[in-house]
Amino acid sequence: MRYDKVYAFLIEKLETGLPAYLTYHDASHTRSVIEFAEHLASSEGVAGDELLLLKTAALFHDAGYLQHHREHEELSCMLARKHLPDYEYTPKEIDRVCHMIMATKLPSEPFDLCEKILCDADLFYLGTEQYDFYADRLFQEMKKTGVVKTKVDWLLRQVEFLSAHQYHTQSAIQEREATKQEKLKELKKRLDSAFVTTKRINVNELLQDFLLVIVGVLFAGYALKGFLVPNHFFDGGITGISLLVHELYHINLAVAILLLNLPFIIVSYFSVGSRFAFRTLFSVIMLGLSLTLIPDVALTSDKLLISIFGGVFLGIGIGLVMRAGAALDGIEVLALYTLKRTSFTITEIILGINVLIFAVAAFQFGIETALYSVLTYFSATRCIDYVVEGIQAHTGVTIISGKSELIKYQLVNDMGRGITIYKGERGFLPGKFEISADCDIIFTVISRLELRKLKNLVYQIDPNAFVFANTIKEASGGVIKRRHHH
To answer: DSSP secondary-structure letter at 443?
Structure first.
């Protein structure tokens, strides 16, 4: 084996033949890998012909970049098989060199000691003080080749890679692992800071949510003052309790709704999230204001029309407010709170509360009024479902995007949701059927109040992402019962 001759031959090619965009995988990288491979070989007791073969593999391991940056390990082996016979390497020795080269292909799975040494030498910079220098050069290269596009993408890739990476030799572990772990902690902090600083308040979205709340409370106020209150009809939930209190004790309806919802708004601050709680408080205050300003004018005396259309307008109003990420009724918060302490489902808890409300209404105002009020409640719930596009307590969401790594990170770390990943292919567009690419298909389960936030999160990362949701009747286990952030 004439290693010195083949070294001089290939290094010259690497210095003059590599593309300019290869700012990391250049001739200096190859020299560094050879140097660190020698260092590890000395520590691990590798010498003689084995050391020469190891250095040869280190020399050729990135030679494939002379032809292309994709599948460069296979191309490197082809070059080794082409040139090494000219420098007195036997077929068996060349096979050995190629096995070591292929071991560096990520995710690396080295078999013997020399393969482990080469894998550790190839990633020598991970546990060094020069990490940022080499990482920046690799980022510039990957940006040129389209692998990453932004600094945030690159931070995410680094965190994921360092979290999964492990050195294979004891020498590398002892020398580099501690420094690598410190760097990983630093990168995680930088990544969290990057996501915080990239969150911007979208004025258009805030304006849209504000208008939805205003229109929603006007619909709800109109339903209450134009249909239900003048005719002594009731609804379910906290609104129904407020109507009962208003009828029985003649307390101002606006005050009753605000006071009865207030405890559940406070509970929602801790169990659902501050964003949801503040929006709900604003919505309830606006509903109270609308009830104060809208006069009591009975639009009809027909009980069937009152029960149906009173429910329809009330349901539309509540649904619009829910689309803005808030609520007009604290009963769902109460159900979520009770769910943690009983074996009943949310549906069963809400049904039980409403049965009590309608039972009191029947006892105080007659069975006919109670039955019409049940019809009002049914009309309202159907309209809520229609307005919020059929979203129930839980919604299954499937996301297909070319930026799935960023979306996965945000879903888990920002929204606190569990995710399931399917391996798939995206592309196959009309006129471009032959173009496709592997992708991760993300599936997660969220509450209906989180759907807007999830869509905003996804489209902030990838405006072209394909997102679709479907109703889930029952869901349990996993992280579904974890705290939701709104």
So the answer is: E
